Amino acid sequence: MERKDFLKGVGIAGVASILPFKKTTSAIIEDGERVSTCTLIPSETRGPYPLPTSTAVSAITRSDIRETKTGVLLTFTITVQNTDCLPIAGARVDIWHCDKDGYYSAYASQPGYLGTLSYVGATWLRGSQTTDSNGQVTFTTIYPGWYTSRVTHIHAEVYINSVLQRTSQFAFPDSLNNTLYTTSAFYTPHGTNTVTNSTDSVFSDADGVTNQLLTVTGSIAAGYAASHTFTITYALTLELLSFSAGLDNGKASLWWSTSNEINASHFEIERSTDAATFINIGSMAAKNTVNINSYSFIDGSITDKSYYRLKMVDKDGKYTYSGIVMVNKKTLQSISIYPNPVKDKLVLNHAVADANTTVTITSLDGRNIAAGKLQAGATSTSMNVNNIVAKGVYLLVVTSVNEKAVIKFIKD
């Protein structure tokens, strides 16, 4: 159902809701214990030249990070996953590396074969992106050069909800480094690096280079494509922030909001007449992001009392149920609002208000935005919504002694 059809200002009544519910997922369970099947990428130093704290991440949020730098084309794909081999969507991936001559952007007084050079304020060969539903990001860059004491490498970090999860580095096959540095006009002035992966100060330690060695295909003329997984320790969770239901012109209207849909596949909507035996009446794909997501569903086949629950299904087939909400078809109260969407003043038409009738505006994730009482005896109420700064969808809840009614509206 399209949102524009759902939000026409029709009456909604007979509402119920549940408290936030969190579901933790895991790919493989044996004897009640989670089994790790993918190896963590080794943790490495951020040095020598991470993004300066004075430079905002937004300045390097892009897929093509070359700017003015020339060299052999490199397309670099990183897949972020957890130790259960499940892709993580919505993670931030930052990378940085030196240019073909062995220098980094953003830093001063860097020694090298071209002399001591400074690139303060520059941002080339630095990038940041957010992983898609497959846990992937792809950067367009150049094949890195090298500098004294280090083999060819790329730095990478992964953040979730702005929290750093792991820092590591990626290496290239020694044979490819030697071929490129002796045959490509971009790199021959610098020549071949005497440091190899096995003698490098970072990759020669106890964990070796195996789990950081890039898979590379292509040619100098056509460019190279490199790929690797970045495995971190991260428990995938789906948090159900709210789940509510109401009567909409004789139909049941369901809406719910979530966050941390990192491994979510879809939601199955189930209905019951006795709150015990449920049948599937529909399905909705999950948006699969760490952001707050909102959903709505209409059911036209309801009895006097219908009960609903959500079956929240992960990509690995595991699932958990929400709590149960109920819609009462015999509820008589009706409410309408206009205009919808609204910019400044919202007009609410309702049944005769008593002295205890209240009105509340909440966000879809359950936060109270505004609250007050309706004037006793009134059948129409004007509300100023100028104080709602953020545009989006909100719930207007009217509560009297005997019942509660809810209607969605859009703040424009």
Salient structural properties:
single chain, 412 residues, mainly beta, Immunoglobulin-like, Protocatechuate 3,4-Dioxygenase, subunit A, 5-stranded antiparallel sheet, 27 strands
How is the topology of this model organized?
Blueprint: H1 3-6, E1 12-18, E2 21-25, E3 29-30, E4 33-34, E5 73-82, E6 92-96, E7 126-130, E8 136-142, E9 153-160, E10 163-171, H2 174-183, E11 215-219, E12 223-232, E13 236-248, E14 251-259, E15 264-272, E16 279-285, E17 293-299, E18 305-314, E19 319-321, E20 325-328, E21 336-338, E22 345-349, E23 358-363, E24 368-373, E25 380-384, E26 392-399, E27 404-411
Parallel strand pairs: 5-12
Antiparallel strand pairs: 1-13, 2-13, 3-4, 5-8, 6-7, 6-9, 9-10, 11-12, 13-14, 14-17, 15-16, 15-18, 18-19, 18-20, 21-22, 22-25, 23-24, 23-26, 26-27
